[in-house]
């Protein structure tokens, strides 16, 4: 029996990159998985089909997390379609990059809506259904521990907010046996931040290992925290950053 057999997970932003790798890795560990998407329905269905082809259960949920009710609706859809929710992975987010003076009010609202507000609302909704052994895992950023230069104010603001939110969740939900953690990736080779991008050499130079990581590296950390090995880990962040914050 796999370590997550009988569990149900929801992964927001699960149609690509870290989210897709996490959804498939959770399914490989035995969990039934729901994954959200905004517009890329074909990509989300492909991830679900790959999970099902390997003998797993998957559900696809359309959810625009900039809309206030979408996060809670995604949780409720998961419960209706898969029967319960044990693991919430808040992966959806925007890569926010640019000078402070050029950040628009609309960009600020959008990033905070998805990276902070939707996490709060999804966690609140999921906690109503979770029991002992529940897991709330949010994908943060290496900018929680180190901001290497200008143009990252909005990104650092949004992702750092996850740390305080997670610590609060850990204290609030710990008596019920529910853990809350953050996984902070460093430079990860995805379509949002490709290893061949214009800033890639700079990002590599900031890591101790001198290279980009892969989405699977982050997914492995999420599965560890979601499984029995993570039962005594809560209220903290796990860096998967190649030594970026060393």
UniProtKB/TrEMBL annotation:
<dbReference type="InterPro" id="IPR036291">
    <property type="entry name" value="NAD(P)-bd_dom_sf"/>
</dbReference>
<dbReference type="InterPro" id="IPR057326">
    <property type="entry name" value="KR_dom"/>
</dbReference>
<keyword id="KW-0560">Oxidoreductase</keyword>
<dbReference type="InterPro" id="IPR002347">
    <property type="entry name" value="SDR_fam"/>
</dbReference>
<comment type="similarity">
    <text>Belongs to the short-chain dehydrogenases/reductases (SDR) family.</text>
</comment>
<feature type="domain" description="Ketoreductase">
    <location>
        <begin position="7"/>
        <end position="191"/>
    </location>
</feature>
<dbReference type="GO" id="GO:0016491">
    <property type="term" value="F:oxidoreductase activity"/>
</dbReference>
<dbReference type="Pfam" id="PF13561">
    <property type="entry name" value="adh_short_C2"/>
</dbReference>
<protein>
    <submittedName>
        <fullName>SDR family NAD(P)-dependent oxidoreductase</fullName>
        <ecNumber>1.1.1.-</ecNumber>
    </submittedName>
</protein>
């Amino acid at each position: 029996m796999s370590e997550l057999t009988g569990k149900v997970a929801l992964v927001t932003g699960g149609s690509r990159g870290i989210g897709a790798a996490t959804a498939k890795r959770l399914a490989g560990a035995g969990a039934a998985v729901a994954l959200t998407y905004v517009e890329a329905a074909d990509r989300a269905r492909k991830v679900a089909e790959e999970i099902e082809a390997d003998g797993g259960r998957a559900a696809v949920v359309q959810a625009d997390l900039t809309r206030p009710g979408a996060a809670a609706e995604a949780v409720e859809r998961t419960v209706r379609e898969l029967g319960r929710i044990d693991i919430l992975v808040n992966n959806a987010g925007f890569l926010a990059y640019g000078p402070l003076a050029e950040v628009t009010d609309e960009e600020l609202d959008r990033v905070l809506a998805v990276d902070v507000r939707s996490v709060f609302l999804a966690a609140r909704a999921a906690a109503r259904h979770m029991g002992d052994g529940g897991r709330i895992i949010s994908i943060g950023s290496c900018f929680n521990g180190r901001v290497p230069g200008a143009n990252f104010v909005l990104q650092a603001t949004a992702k750092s907010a996850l740390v305080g939110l997670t610590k609060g969740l850990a204290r609030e939900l710990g008596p019920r046996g529910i853990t809350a953690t953050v996984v902070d990736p460093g430079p990860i080779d995805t379509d949002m931040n490709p290893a061949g991008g214009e800033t890639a050499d700079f990002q590599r130079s900031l890591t101790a290992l001198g290279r980009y990581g892969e989405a699977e590296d982050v997914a492995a950390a999420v599965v560890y925290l979601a499984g029995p090995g993570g039962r005594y880990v809560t209220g903290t962040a796990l860096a998967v950053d190649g030594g970026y914050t060393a």
